[in-house]
Amino acid sequence: MNVIVSYPWIKTNPKKSDSGECALCSIHPEWGQFCEVFLCFSLIQWYLRPAISIVGILKKYGITKGDFVFRFFKPHVSGNVMVMNKKRLFCCYCGNTIIQSEIEGKLRDYCSHCNTVFYENPLPVASCIVVNEGREILLVKRKNEPYRGMWCLPIGFAETDEEVKDTALRELEEEAGIKGKIIRLIDVDTIENYFYGSMAIVTYEAEAAGGTLRAGDDASDAGYFPIMKLPELAWSSNKKAIDIYIDQNRDSWAMVDSFKRLFPDMDPMEGFLPKAEEQKRLLSNILMKIIERDREEISRNWSEDIKAMVPNLTLHLEALAGMNKDVLMAVRHWLQGKSRAIDFEKFTKMGENLSRLNIPLPDALNAMALSRNSIWSHVVQKKILSSPLKIYTTLEFNNRIIFIYDRINYYITTGYCGSPNT
Asked: Is the per-residue pLDDT at 372 higher than 70?
């Protein structure tokens, strides 16, 4: 069967070899009937290459398809859709024709008749990020143009005499039925949109404080989506703000996940911790629970370190083990914020006992340093601190642990030096 395909715009066959024979025919003579079909597919593949590259670039920089099409091609929009960003033709004050004039280093609309300059300022827009305990983010489906049928954060324009954060909460309730409370500012982004023109989009993080999830106003649907598996978003600014939110909470989520792996029987904790103080409180709870659960293992590791690094204390391990048990209990109380529950006078008496046993004070203090190190070594093994925690958080807890051990060492030293045997 012969296959004949004709392409009038193709004058020559670029697949011909130097000998004048078709490259496909040179492989097998009977394949020559398909050479033009092969050429057609080759040309399609060739012309699709730029489009494939463009799609990759759009995904890399978070530009939606709608943004790309309307930013670079600006198609005519007709039908029931009214484009808001219309060119100004006449002066709204005197009715004369508007001209373009360079004013303050930029082309601006200008009325020479009444000497009026029209400044194009970005429209104020507010949106908010609401995430539930399952790390799902609230999105609404757009009912109207632009980007009808696409998902986005609850978003809308600020009214006159309305604070931008109040706009974000109003849009949240109007479009998703949720009453919210602002937690913090996430991002401010300016974009040029084919429909509205220049926009300044302010994104807040908010928490749900009431209401019932339902679509309303400009939204045809509303729902929660896993924050790591979102549909394509209408606004590139939404994607940028969500990426910032994820980066800000990544370490907190890692700590929560570690806590849940270590203590699966405990009540579920919040899926996100936006504030630094809450991060510190969570890490305190993790360390406290580890010490409470793994106290015997930590003590065994400490004993092995004593034998290896301070061998002359091996004979006194039994007495030192009791002291270390009390130290671990004091650290637990300290992490819980219950410093008043710590009986520091007990450590004064321990110092006196160390003196009676003729244990050198430097060796006793080295034992305390190894006790502190055994806690951190155990925590590292549990991979609580394997994520890139913020430096200030790690230092904060290192300083707190050092501080409680320094106080204990002070009372031990006081008891040791005040003993009649010293």
From this structure: yes
